[in-house]
Design brief:
This protein is mostly helical and about 140 residues long. The chain contains five helices and no strands.
Length: about 140
């Protein structure tokens, strides 16, 4: 359980990124991954590694302590990102390029773990809101 002093400190001292530019970086990475479904030279291994690095940094932040409107905007951006990755997966499955099969599997794993993390984050946010109301 988080103490009220800790909760107040996190609410006032945590610095969060400016979401538009933060998610633009994620969009750029995702766009590069999508090139594996085109005739352009793609580097899915490098691009997926960049995605995973970005994701590791993303999940390290305590988003649940962010101001409610900021959190809702974050959720909107992240939900959209996950939908785009799901579309890349569906398109790749339609193309059935055996060379890209391991990358598609990686993206499926990424999507599953991201969905699970995102669901847990939203639950945590509800707990934090309840704690704020009690405090």
């Amino acid at each position: 359980m988080v103490k009220n002093e800790d909760l107040k400190w996190r609410e006032t001292n945590m610095e969060y990124p400016e979401l538009e530019s933060y998610f633009q970086e994620l969009t750029d990475i995702t766009d590069k991954i999508a090139t594996m479904n085109t005739h352009f030279d793609a580097k899915p291994k490098e691009d997926i590694e960049a995605l995973l690095e970005f994701h590791n940094e993303l999940v390290s932040k305590p988003w649940e302590y962010a101001e409610r409107s900021y959190f809702e905007l974050f959720c909107s951006y992240f939900s959209f990102h996950l939908k785009i990755v799901e579309e890349i997966i569906m398109e790749a499955r339609g193309i059935l390029d055996p060379e890209h099969r391991p990358y598609v599997k990686q993206l499926v794993g990424y999507t599953k773990s991201s969905d699970e993390w995102f669901t847990n984050l939203k639950k945590l946010k509800k707990k934090v809101i309840r704690q704020q109301q009690v405090a």
